[in-house]
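Key result, reporting period 2: structure in, sequence out.
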């Protein structure tokens, strides 16, 4: 025989409190006496009571649920940020739904529509470049939203992230400072991705400041995958006119590029210096260790969680949260003209 599901009335009866006290203990625990809260929690555990989320949402017009849509779940940097986002939301009394459009931005609006029709209180998106249909849905459902990761095209109070343009500019400047004048770029795919466009713009600005061009045939667009990095090296190897440095948009691409160089007998960094971005754990484990941009991944998740809850609960958020990145210089970037003995001494430090 199927066991009857416990009700809130059952909880109140077992705890010896009124129905109102039982309800407040579950929805506003800070507003009830500690002994009452303890009795209610004990009764909930004993009965296995689970609140009716649909009924609660209908009564309060809140689901206590946040949706976050990422371009991919296959990149470690997003996984770390999602973990921080989820933990912070839990601490604030909210739950998280995560989805991915797999770098197919035309799917984002349909994915978002399916999520919001089921009921969420707010949404967290990645980047600032989204279809009009995405913003139309936000307005239609009057949903608070946070744009995470990028602040280059910031909307007041709604962005949490860092400047991709600034990070790209500083990385390109570092590569030039190491004596490189023949520099290629593997930035990702620019269409519908303002972060990739910012990388290209920042790299071009840094090279231009040093009187150097960013050659169009040395901008190799490709996915943020190991294969994307491999393909970039393969394309650059099709002619004898080759760069001495390759700046990649992510560490994943850079590691793929290093692997392709190894297969082709191209020495990194002696024949080709390679840099990445994100500073994932793999960056310090690959050989040679990767010069990269350290991104405050967890902080982006934590601040995005706090900001979306502030928006939902009507608190002021202030200016966009612009976080800082730092350059991490390792052995994959070599100074042009440095002798092999000097390189070996540097690696032993």
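The corresponding designed sequence is given below.
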């Amino acid at each position: 025989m199927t066991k009857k599901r416990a009700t809130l009335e059952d909880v109140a009866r077992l705890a010896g409190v009124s129905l109102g006290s039982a309800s407040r203990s579950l929805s506003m625990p800070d507003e009830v006496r500690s002994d009452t809260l303890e009795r209610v929690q004990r009764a909930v555990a004993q009965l296995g009571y689970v609140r009716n989320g649909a009924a609660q949402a209908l009564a309060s017009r809140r689901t206590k649920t946040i949706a976050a849509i990422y371009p991919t779940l296959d990149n470690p940097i997003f996984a770390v940020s999602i973990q921080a986002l989820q933990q912070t939301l839990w601490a604030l009394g909210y739950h998280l739904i995560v989805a991915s459009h797999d770098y197919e931005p035309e799917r984002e609006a349909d994915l978002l529509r399916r999520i919001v029709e089921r009921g969420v209180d707010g949404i967290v998106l990645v980047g600032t470049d989204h279809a009009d249909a995405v913003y139309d849905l936000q307005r239609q459902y009057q949903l608070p939203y946070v744009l995470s990761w990028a602040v280059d095209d910031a909307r007041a109070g709604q962005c949490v992230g860092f400047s991709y343009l600034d990070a790209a500019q500083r990385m390109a400047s570092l590569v030039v400072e190491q004596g490189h004048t023949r520099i290629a770029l593997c930035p990702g795919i620019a269409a519908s991705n303002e972060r990739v466009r910012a990388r290209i713009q920042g790299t071009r600005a840094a090279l231009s400041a040093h009187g150097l061009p960013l050659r169009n045939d040395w901008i190799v667009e490709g996915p943020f995958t190991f294969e994307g990095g491999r393909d970039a090296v393969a394309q650059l190897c099709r002619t004898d006119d080759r760069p001495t440095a390759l700046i990649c948009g992510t560490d994943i691409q850079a590691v793929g590029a290093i692997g392709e160089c190894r297969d082709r007998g191209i020495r990194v960094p002696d024949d080709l210096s390679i840099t990445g971005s994100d500073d994932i754990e793999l960056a310090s484990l690959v050989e040679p260790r990767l010069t990269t941009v350290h991104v405050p991944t967890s902080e982006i998740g934590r601040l995005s969680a706090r900001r979306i809850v502030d928006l939902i609960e009507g608190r002021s958020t202030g200016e966009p949260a612009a976080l800082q990145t730092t350059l991490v210089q390792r052995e994959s970037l070599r100074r042009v003209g440095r002798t092999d003995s000097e390189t070996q001494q540097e690696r032993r430090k």
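The longest strand covers residues 65-70. Confidence is low (pLDDT under 50) at residues 53-60. This case is discussed further under Risks and Mitigation.
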